[in-house]
Amino acid sequence: MFYRESGQFKKTYAADMAVFPILQDRIGIAIILFVAAVIIPLFGSTFFISSVMIPFLVFSLAAMGLNIVTGYTGLISLGTGAFMGVGAFACYKLTTIFPNVNIIIWILASGFFSAAIGALFGLPSLRIKGFYLAVATLAAQFFLEWCFVRIPWLYNYSASGAIQVPQRTLFDLPITGANATPVTRYLVLLGIVVFLTWIASNILHGRIGRTFMAVRDMDIAAELMGIRLLPAKLMAFALSSFYCGVAGAVMMFLWYGGGEAADAFNIRQSFNILFMVIIGGLGSLIGCYFGAALLSAVPLILKFGFPAMGIAIGSQTAEHINHLFVGSLIIFFLIVEPHGLARLWQIMKQKLRTWPFPY
Amino acid sequence: MDLASLLLAPAFFAFDLLGLLKSIFVTPFADMAAMPDLLVQTIWEGLVSGVLYALIALGFVLIFKASGVFNFAQGIMVVFAALTLVGFHEKGVPAWLAVFLTLGVMLVLAIAVERVVLRPLVNQPDIILFMATFGLTYVLIGLGEFIFGGEPKQMIAEQLYIPRGPIDVAMLGGRVTFQKIDIAAAVIASVMIIALALFFQYTRIGRALRAVADSHKAALSVGISLNQIWVIVWFAAGIVALITGIMWGARSEVSFGLDIIALKALPVLILGGFTSIPGAIVGGLIIGIGEKLAEFYWGPLVGGGIESWIAYVIALGFLMVRPQGLFGDKIIERI
Amino acid sequence: MKPQQQIETGATLLNVENVSLRFGGVKAITDVSFDIRKGEVRAIIGPNGAGKTSMLNVINGFYHPQDGRITYRGATRSKMRPHVAASQGIARTFQNVALFKGMTTLDNIMVGRTLKMRKSFFWQLFRHGPAMAEEIEHRKFVEEIIDFLEIEHIRKVPVGKLPYGLQKRVELGRALAMEPELLLLDEPMAGMNLEEKEDMCRFILDTKEQYGTTIALIEHDMGVVMDLSDRVVVLEYGIKIADGTPDEVKANQKVIDAYLGVAH
Asked: What is the pLDDT, as a whole number, of residue B179?
């Protein structure tokens, strides 16, 4: 009823090419941003902000990174975790060496380091495809994981091999380290994620995004249309790793607040992000949010939700059930809707648009 | 001398470049020549882990040949089979019966996979099926942990008459130790591979399998039941998984920590090609021996532990030279 | 890449000299020579497996022949990557439709404009200012093609969902978006019904008239070939057996034998 586009005429190509051509969508986005930036910080509990919202945003960013290379360009990467790790370590080293530069700049800059590493490991993608490439990215994952443990310089020779996030401030307000409140960390994170989502949306809706999708759908034809495959694929890897790197940096600095990186950025993390992308929807930005929301919610519900309802589950069992559930969910989605939650969302909007008529 | 100090000290690096080159290209080979018994020992260790990699890769190849599915879950099937076996025995079932019951479970698994995963996904792009096996991997991990618990278990090696203990052989001016169980693993693997090859070549089902591998549609049109074939290959892969699991479990322990090692079968496949049984064997041996040699002779240069990734790097380097694998045909792209 | 001298209508645009192509021991093309003149419709015909598609693949650089020379716009080349061929103005369609299935009709055709879009990565980040102006400019061009091919109604439909005939049309549109000098069409009418064939013939002729595009055409429908083309080259088992106007080719005994078989 309220979701109608009748009466909204697009008079220019610019209006037709807008990311949200329908007025109701624009209003919806505005409401979501308002809730995220004002309502949640004001009324959300500490638990909700630090255990629900922050992980969700971090995972959304990482999923966005993987979706660029896997969903949009069709190159499977199993090295997401490692690329996130590169970002985390780059940020750590940068802020140790130059403590006076604002941490937000370093968080974003650390993305460039993982972009370079990602492009390096993307080089084989010119000659190999599909499963073979997936294995090639495993080389990146295990090699980098090894580096995270074996190169003490990366974690400043600390005995435990863990990253210790120092306190950094913005306008005298601590935003990282032990003194930063969850709300500040959340707001900084929100700003970064929203900004990077906007950039990703711009890139993917334009020439570069079309190039990626052309390579994904039919690489030979793309090449015959004048698209050079190696630069296109490397760009996808670099861009993807940039997002993953920033995600890794914010994971360490704004969420974990330190810890052993080798555990946080292992192969399981790579799979975890891949599953978010599959369930959310390959080749869809909004799908990244859906996937991240669902997969970061499930363990929380198992861990806190069930005990709250009086059903006791051991934390071990909860983890087992989580595996079982996530695995089944993947199979379910691949069978029922290979394009994931994002496609379901689209179908729902389509139905709403024509409601109460079926067509 | 670890990698970090090299990175930190460029002056030192330039000064000792000659020494570095020497320690990469000269010293390891000199060591090999000086102590050949140690070299044989290292190669043997590599050979044994290579056989186990090859066995996992074999399961992959079986399924890929017959259904075109790249079964990521094969490594987990190994752990799952081994866990089921141990689990039955813990419940007081005699060892021989436990083996049969586990085979039954693998058959049920094959049927379930065919019904729930493969049948609805037929005609989907390969990559979707590949991802579905990721899902399967997690279901199996979750299920296994849920039923049998997460802690590592001991394989029932003695009850299954698997020999234990070392055999020391004096050779090349030293002593080389062979574990009996490793010899047993090598023998069993060879027997199984020969049996599978004969099965593929000479039986009616084997012929049907090869037909399905070539073309699903053509096989269907001559009256081969795809569903039946799928169940058969997944069951065959399950048997391979069980045997691999027993041998592997007897060498270390049975737990889902093994899944990282199971991923090692992937570089093996790259080397050998996805469809070649001899390729899986040769690839397994190359990777197994290669990584043990690399770890033993070159690992100390960078602080050790390179076994975790060297296999992938070997495979990657190999791919750049021969994208079609060791035994694959040259790919002619068509449009 | 840059010496873009203008080729007069009727002058030789592309010259294929003694080209041979082998895959291992299989000879796909043996010692074939022919030329394509600016502004003409040149048909390549022959029975199945005669090497026609391989010939197109050689022309746009996807296969590299072992022997022979290819001269395009006066420049001879040995090995060339397909994207270079594209940047020099060679576009093509495919025997089995090779569209980008996950993208809409509009996006598919917009991909054809990729080479003409120059705004840097920096502006792409913001999708405002120069990048947006460029998008709109090319969108206008694409809309003209959409208009020309009468596919306005499927503008925003993912091409994977379109029927075969329309997919072929979108593919032609994608090739046209490259503003090619030489357009290679690989069986543009395969699997179409009569009406769709007539439409397609009309589009091909209009393309030639409106954009002045030179067209090389592979087609099995002899009626279409004889009507559309100015000159025809006939291949059989990778060897050229005839070359000339449709009437000459029709009268050629070797061609008749190739199509109808010879009494031994």
From this structure: 78
> Which chain B residues have a beta carbon less than 8 Å from that of C57?
335
Residues B4, A152: C-beta atoms closer than 8 Å = yes
CATH of domain C1-89+181-193+214-264: 3.40.50.300
Using CA coordinates, name the residue in chain C closest to B329.
C24
Q: Closest partner residue to A135 among B302, B303, B315, by Cβ?
A: B315
Residue B299 domain flag: no
Amino acid at A110: S
> pLDDT tens across A324-343, in order?
888 898 888 888 887 888 88
Chain C: residue whose CA lies nearest to A16: C136
- List, in order, residues 6 or more apart from A259 with CB less than 8 Å away: A162, A163, A252
Count of domains for chain B: 1
**How far is Cα B72 from Cα B136, in angstroms, rounded to an integer?**
8
Is C30:C20 a contact under the CB 8 Å cutoff?
Answer: yes
Q: What is the mean pLDDT of chain B?
A: 79
Question: Is the ipTM, as predicted for this complex, more than 0.85?
Answer: yes
Question: Which residue among C92, C125, C139 places its CB closest to the CB of A13?
Answer: C139
Helix axes B277-293, B307-321, angle to 10 degrees: 130
Chain B residues with CB-CB distance to A224 below 8 A: 335
The candidate with the shortest Cα–Cα distance to A57, out of A41, A77, A43, A73, is: A41
The better pLDDT of the pair B80, B65 is held by B80
| Cα–Cα distance for residue pair A41/A236, rounded to 1 Å | 35
Task: List chain B residues with CB under 8 Å of A325.
Answer: 142
Which of B131, B132, B266 faces A138 most closely, judged by CB atoms?
B266
pLDDT at res. B328: 62
Mind telling me how many Å the CA of C63 is from chain B's nearest CA? 9
* Domain limits for position B165: 49-263
**Fold classified for A22-267:** ABC transporter involved in vitamin B12 uptake, BtuC (1.10.3470)
Give the start-to-end residue ranges of the domains of chain C: 1-89+181-193+214-264, 97-179
Bridge partners (DSSP) of residue C17 are C69
Instruction: Write the DSSP string, C91-125.
Output: EE--SS----TTSBHHHHHHHTTGGG----HHHHT
Backbone angles phi, psi at A237, to 5 degrees: -65, -45
Q: Which chains touch C (3 or more CB pairs under 8 A)?
A: A, B
Contact B335 C62 (CB under 8 A): yes
Can you give the pLDDT of all 264 residues of chain C as single tens digits?
Answer: 344 556 777 788 889 989 999 887 888 899 999 999 998 999 999 888 888 889 998 988 888 888 888 888 888 876 778 888 888 889 999 888 889 988 999 999 999 888 888 777 777 777 777 888 888 888 999 999 999 888 888 888 889 888 888 899 999 999 999 989 999 999 888 888 888 889 899 999 999 888 889 999 998 888 888 888 999 999 988 889 889 998 888 888 888 888 877 666
In a domain, residue B166? The reply is yes
Q: What is the pLDDT of residues A102-140, one digit of tens each?
A: 888 999 999 999 999 999 988 888 777 777 788 888 888
Lowest model confidence (mean pLDDT) among A52-56, A318-322, B257-261: B257-261
Confidence at residue A197, expressed as pLDDT on a 0 to 100 scale? 93
